[in-house]
UniProtKB/TrEMBL annotation:
Its cofactor is pyridoxal 5'-phosphate. Allosteric enzyme that catalyzes the rate-limiting step in glycogen catabolism, the phosphorolytic cleavage of glycogen to produce glucose-1-phosphate, and plays a central role in maintaining cellular and organismal glucose homeostasis. Glycogen phosphorylase that regulates glycogen mobilization. Phosphorylase is an important allosteric enzyme in carbohydrate metabolism. Enzymes from different sources differ in their regulatory mechanisms and in their natural substrates. However, all known phosphorylases share catalytic and structural properties. This is Alpha-1,4 glucan phosphorylase. It catalyses: [(1->4)-alpha-D-glucosyl](n) + phosphate = [(1->4)-alpha-D-glucosyl](n-1) + alpha-D-glucose 1-phosphate. GO terms for cellular component: cytoplasm. PANTHER family: GLYCOGEN PHOSPHORYLASE, GLYCOGEN PHOSPHORYLASE, BRAIN FORM. InterPro entries: Glycg_phsphrylas, Glyco_trans_35. The keyword Zinc does not apply. It is an enzyme of class 2 (transferase).
Amino acid sequence: PQRIYYLSLEFYMGRTLQNTMVNLGLQNACDEAIYQLGLDVEELEEIEEDAGLGNGGLGRLAACFLDSMATLGLAAYGYGIRYEFGIFNQKIVDGWQVEEADDWLRYGNPWEKARPEYMLPVHFYGRVDHTPEGVKWIDTQVVLAMPYDTPVPGYKNNTVNTMRLWSAKAPNDFNLQEFNVGDYIEAVLDRNLAENISRVLYPNDNFFEGKELRLKQEYFVVAATLQDIIRRFKSSKFGCRDPVRTCFETFPDKVAIQLNDTHPALSIPELMRILVDVEKVDWDKAWEITKRTCAYTNHTVLPEALERWPVSMFEKLLPRHLEIIYALNQMHLDRVAALYPGDIDRLRRMSVIEEGDCKRINMAHLCVIGSHAVNGVARIHSDIVKNSVFKDFYELEPEKFQNKTNGITPRRWLLLCNPGLADVIAEKIGEGFITDLSQLKKLLDFINNETFIRDVAKVKQENKMKFAAYLEEQYKVKINPSSMFDVQVKRIHEYKRQLLNCLHAITLYNRIRSDPSKSFVPRTIMIGGKAAPGYHMAKMIIKLITSIGEVINNDPYVGDRLKVIFLENYRVSLAEKVIPAADLSQQISTAGTEASGTGNMKFMVNGALTIGTMDGANVEMAEEAGEENLFIFGMRVEDVEALDRQGYNAQEYYEHLPELRQAIDQISSGFFSPRDPGCFRDVVNMLMHHDRFKVFADYEAYIKCQGQVDKLFMDPREWTKKVIRNIACSGKFSSDRTIMEYAREIWGVEPSATKIPPPNLPRD
């Protein structure tokens, strides 16, 4: 069959033990066996470290995709880097984020198997020699790539796929070549320089930092993986008489490479280099093979996130790849010039090479010209990709552009993290929904069923009690389990607008203070997420959240009607605890900035209601459940564009909205930072004078919408009916559906529902 290669610099896997038991159908047996040994399985599960080899959405999507590809019986491989240190652990000290190294391999990793027999060389630096026999890349430095395999089990189908992560090893003669005669000790110590390539995950989410070590990581995973892919292609017996296949005609029919964002974009010039320089395939033929093999997923439209590497860095590190990129770009621009004669500006806009003080390579443009399919990750995002980000490319080849709305695996994000809800659902509609989430639609028949309403509400209350107990045990914070659990967990970023959430918390606080005898709907506002270590504003936002909490949580007038909690060290294993306990899910990015979001889907399937903007997959969630069953507020993409044309003036909102002005003045005056009154001047200055994400423009609509949330929460029966409606309409957001669309519309393979016979049964 065709093999699928999912290339990603991030796989945010979390813990593996419980997921393995669930997918093998062994959970109950294991629980029972461990109980009989006098142990508690949950205590055991809490000992496992998260595999935190990702930053956020993009890395977690890759992990969900692996689960779905195995469950759908695809011959798929995940390829990435085995970082020695994953995403940092976050500590909060005096209200500030402090990072510590995530030494996740300290006690070993029982799920991985080293495969030294498949170790491969990766070349860097050197120079290019053009000889009559062809092009040679010579005098390179070699780093070895050691593969580590982790099994990826499908759900109860006896399929086990592989995630192969590469680790960097110095060759034994490293720095001990002829020119380095003297210092043997120094040379051995220098092995670290090579091995640093797989040392640490870059902790940036939606931000490009043009560091040479990062470019090395990107080429390292690509070069090792492509050698592996070609080795497997050549040794395959399928439809091939030769014992070793030498003809690459059939390569795209046997191999599909999916690029998870532009991070593995070097796959395109590297495949060209192997085909042309090593395998001696004709250039045009090689280009056709490359394009038919590769497909590219775009994950963001934020300009600061786009990878634009300096040509000078390529010249030094990957000289042959630079030559190939120049040649591909020339071919591409010749075609554009022929179709649009005299349109010089179009050539400039569409070039892979950006001219200027520092010449740069636009990796997104390279991916678009080198792939047969380009997709966005939610319908609204794919439309923006076609109509703005890659508009010129869309006009050139509209058939290339597709949408593949993201999804989440229902195994981890329902069965594993919320067994109570899964049981209540299975009681009513059977277990088919686990591998066909669209079956949740059957729950619409039970929307007025009193016992079902009661059962769903009871499961939510139990999850809340359990999470409250966890918070008290781990962080010594007491919360009111009958309050509304209002949750915003995601990476801290200005575009995600945690600041809007802060302004609502302050507004709520001021309303309680101005009339303490009035009855308020009690809320526990929980905000969690990591800030990139170099992202000053994000770190200030965390300090603001903790400072607001300090004031509100210790004000006797407030009591337990309002609490603001910062959830420390948000990660996959914490998401599995907090999401099933949430009542309200906050998805409040400025319209047009969040490509899709996947946390939004996790909350929906776990029985929280969503307050959100018409952004990313929220749009499709509202379409599936009915807009009246989400709390939708604020500007749409069109409104944001109109406001951009008109000019956004924060001062205007500040002057016309008294509650907003009061909140900003409190932040500004040091009300929340009495020991350092000027603490938040940067935040206030940004909000007032250069807020790209227009927080104030949505403030009034947001506060009003939160009033609607309060009103519904006071009627638990109506609230729970909306919850059931949301769960029933969440089926579209399974990653199984997403992967079926990739398989059929990009990779050209048909998923199979057939269960492989178990190894103890004889095969046909």
